[in-house]
From TrEMBL:
<dbReference type="Pfam" id="PF00583">
    <property type="entry name" value="Acetyltransf_1"/>
</dbReference>
<dbReference type="InterPro" id="IPR016181">
    <property type="entry name" value="Acyl_CoA_acyltransferase"/>
</dbReference>
<feature type="domain" description="HTH marR-type">
    <location>
        <begin position="1"/>
        <end position="141"/>
    </location>
</feature>
<feature type="domain" description="N-acetyltransferase">
    <location>
        <begin position="166"/>
        <end position="306"/>
    </location>
</feature>
<dbReference type="InterPro" id="IPR036388">
    <property type="entry name" value="WH-like_DNA-bd_sf"/>
</dbReference>
<dbReference type="InterPro" id="IPR000182">
    <property type="entry name" value="GNAT_dom"/>
</dbReference>
<dbReference type="InterPro" id="IPR000835">
    <property type="entry name" value="HTH_MarR-typ"/>
</dbReference>
<dbReference type="Pfam" id="PF12802">
    <property type="entry name" value="MarR_2"/>
</dbReference>
<dbReference type="GO" id="GO:0008080">
    <property type="term" value="F:N-acetyltransferase activity"/>
</dbReference>
<dbReference type="GO" id="GO:0003700">
    <property type="term" value="F:DNA-binding transcription factor activity"/>
</dbReference>
<dbReference type="InterPro" id="IPR050769">
    <property type="entry name" value="NAT_camello-type"/>
</dbReference>
<keyword id="KW-0808">Transferase</keyword>
<dbReference type="InterPro" id="IPR036390">
    <property type="entry name" value="WH_DNA-bd_sf"/>
</dbReference>
<protein>
    <submittedName>
        <fullName>GNAT family N-acetyltransferase</fullName>
    </submittedName>
</protein>
Amino acid sequence: MPINGADDQIAAVRAFNRFYTRKLGVLDQHLGKSPFSLSEARVLYELAHRDDLAAKEIGNELGLDPGYLSRIVQSFDEKGLITRTPLPADRRQYQLSLTAKGRQTFAKLNLGSQNEVAAMLARLSTGDATRLTQAMATIEAVLEQRQTAPASVVLRSHRVGDMGWVISKQAAAYAADYGWDISYEALVAEICAQFVKSYDAAREHCWIAELGGEPVGSIFLVKATDELAKLRLLQVEKKARGFGVGRALVEQCLQGARERGYKRMTLWTQSILVAARGIYKSAGFELVATKPHHSFGHDLVGETWERDL
């Protein structure tokens, strides 16, 4: 039997769950206006944010019935959203990865969800929105009881050999994650070559992020005009994601631009680069222009983001 007061607590939690699922519009098991169920969207999310997950791992973490998960995986495979590779240790189990089409699909789904939540928050006052998000953070912290060991991120200046590392890692990452062709590698090589040839230490810089003495990320500060700086080639290796490396690099680039006398910073990115866009937005950048284009073997939507320093 529950102890005194537990019945009321249980009822309160269940009532909140019913209210919140209705509020988010997922009571009918579909996420917003997308063709995906809530469970399908969660599987896409896990695959977009973690490397080469086994189907069994996803099922265990999300609490999905194996048969139901199998049907989701089969549907994703038929739609060309994922690749399936048998695990060497157990050929009955599969390692799952998103294809370029899968990542584009997730980016569209993620943007739709973000817009829906933004519309919900827009109806609230600033104070109420703050109270709401703080309450959510409290709920998450209490239920998760997470204990994460802080990682030591070191940002250093570029040195001989780093440009080759940047070119190789950028080209390989975007080919694997988004299916971009070798023309992107050529673009990165041109940017790095021009940076080295015309390097002005008083106005420009490159930072390399290290974890445990190993390079895991990079960012470039490049002169556009006397007052306008460019942020270029933000990159974080998959194994280093989740440690705040990307945010640390962007903050360092902003600080470096201020110290060098710039008044404003601009950057160019793509609409499908969800994680990077999130970092830019949290760092105070605003989307100021979009333009569809065909580059790197794909139809893309280029975005210009800017902020004052």
